[in-house]
Amino acid sequence: GLELIIPNIISPNGDGRNDALRAQIAGVAELRWQIFNRWGQEMHAAGKAGLDGEENILLWSPTDLSAGVYSLIIQAIGSSGQVERMEVMITVVE
């Protein structure tokens, strides 16, 4: 199976806790993701293949951002070929 666990709150304040958006994954071979602000402007986009066996991946390490709500659109392709697409609202707090 394909498993993604993504937090919905991060606090990039430099205290070393929840400073970046990370996903816990299982059964994922490839990920692609985009992050948008509330006005629909793309803030970050990336992808990574060859994830078989990885359990934790950095999705976004924001700097100089306003607190607020951002949209994460993520597509995961499983080792079995299964494709999942989801949207998660991410709250950035100071």
Which SSEs are present, and which pair or pack?
Elements lengths: L2 E3 L3 E2 L10 E6 L1 E9 L5 E8 L6 E5 L7 E11 L4 E10 L2
Parallel strand pairs: 2-8
Antiparallel strand pairs: 1-3, 3-6, 4-5, 4-7, 7-8
Describe this entry's structure for a reader.
The chain has a 5-stranded mixed β-sheet with strand order 2-8-7-4-5, with no helix packed on it. Strands 1-3-6 form a 3-stranded antiparallel β-sheet, with no helix packed on it. The mean pLDDT is 92. The protein contains no helices and 8 strands. With 94 residues, the protein is an all-beta fold. Helix content is 0%, strand content 57%. A hairpin with a 4-residue loop joins β7 and β8. The relative contact order is 0.33.
In short:
This protein has strands at 3-5, 9-10, 21-26, 28-36, 42-49, 56-60, 68-78, 83-92.
List keywords for this structure.
single chain, mainly beta, three-stranded antiparallel beta sheet, 8 strands, globular
Measured on Cα atoms, how large is the radius of gyration?
Answer: 13 Å
Q: Tell me roughly what share of residues is in helical segments.
A: under 10%
Secondary structure tally: strands: 8
- H and E string: EEEEEEEE
Average pLDDT figure? 92
Counting DSSP H or I runs of 4 or more residues, the number of helices is 0
Numbering strands along the chain, what is their spatial order in the largest sheet? 2-8-7-4-5
Largest sheet: 5 strands, mixed
- Oligomerization status of the protein chains: single chain
**How much of the polypeptide forms β-strand, as a percent range?**
over 45%
Shape verdict: globular
User: Unreliable segments (pLDDT under 50, ≥5 consecutive)?
Assistant: none
Report how far apart the termini are.
Answer: 35 Å
